[in-house]
Amino acid sequence: xxxxxxIGLLQRLPEVVPITTAEFxxxxxxxxHSVLDCRRFEQAFGLVLPDWxxxxxxxxxxxxxxxxx
Length: 69
Hints:
- It contains 3 helices and no strands.
- By secondary structure, the protein is mainly α.
């Protein structure tokens, strides 16, 4: 959201309030701590994935450029 705000796609930043899994009940059980860990992929294929924020900013710029002026 900060990236979208920084390039003018958002007028203001919304307030994001973190909650626990217990506060967001779903039918599917979720692990207590789950993060995307790419180390096994990187080791298996010898590739290092870019930080997710880099391609996200490319998409945000494309969205901004596609808006009517």
